[in-house]
Design goal:
CATH superfamily: Gcn5-related N-acetyltransferase (GNAT)
Strand order of the largest sheet: 7-8-6-5-4-3-2-1-9
Radius of gyration: 16 Å
Strand content: 25-35%
Distance between the termini: 6 Å
Number of domains: 1
Structural class: alpha+beta
Order of helices and strands: EEHHHEEEHEHEEE
CATH class: Alpha Beta
Helix content: 25-40%
Length: about 210
């Protein structure tokens, strides 16, 4: 187990030292693996209406099918290996079923900044699990990767995502005109939020190597 570090390190840990597992009161979060692709594809298919409504990459049912998810997972693992992203696959500790997927991406370790994102199976909406999982990953970003500034965005009208960001301590920063896109191709304004390391939401997460 890696002791939780309240203070930021003077320099980010090497990738070999990034925790492979994070445990929160209700979630078990592991680094993305190729064998996760079937469960992720199934979770996306079960949440298809909501995903298609809010994200550009869910443009057709085929885009979230297993072949495409195998490709996506392979790309994401390469991004992790380059130190550009962290992809966490969460499962409920009580049942093992798929929980919210939590991500750090576009990380610039030299400038100590990055972005975060997430999606949650529709059936778990309102459970607070996305906030719990993201709080843990934000702590990972600040304490292990040394990030001092993290950005997030949501499309106009996505109040559920806005609530998560507000709970996590993000502060509204600016709007990007037509900066978000639905699966249908319709463009929406993107609302961008900013979080500094000192603002992160408290987390009881334990990190394991």
């Amino acid at each position: 187990m890696i002791d939780f570090m309240a203070e930021q390190p003077s320099s980010p840990l090497s990738l070999a030292q990034i925790p492979r597992r994070i445990v929160t009161p209700r979630l078990d979060i592991t680094l993305l693996r190729l064998e996760d692709a079937p469960d992720i594809s199934r979770g996306l298919q079960e949440s298809w209406p909501e995903m298609h409504h809010w994200v550009a990459w869910a443009d057709t049912p085929e885009s979230i099918g297993l072949p495409k998810q195998h490709e996506a997972v392979s790309r994401n693992i390469l991004q992790f290996n380059k130190g550009e992203a962290y992809f966490g696959v969460s499962r409920l500790r009580t049942t093992g079923e798929l929980g919210p997927q939590v991500t750090l991406y576009n990380m610039d370790l030299d400038n100590q900044c990055g972005e975060c994102g997430y999606w949650n199976p529709t059936k778990l909406t309102g459970s607070g699990l996305t906030t719990e999982g993201m709080a843990a990953v934000l702590k990972l970003g600040t304490s292990c990767y040394g990030l001092k500034e993290i950005f997030a965005r949501h499309g106009a009208g996505n109040t559920a995502s806005q609530r998560v960001l507000n709970k996590l301590g993000f502060v509204f920063d600016h709007v990007v005109k037509d900066g978000s896109q639905r699966g249908s191709g319709e463009h929406l304004d993107a609302y961008v939020y900013r979080l500094t390391a000192s603002q992160t939401f408290p987390s009881d997460a334990l990190f394991y190597s």
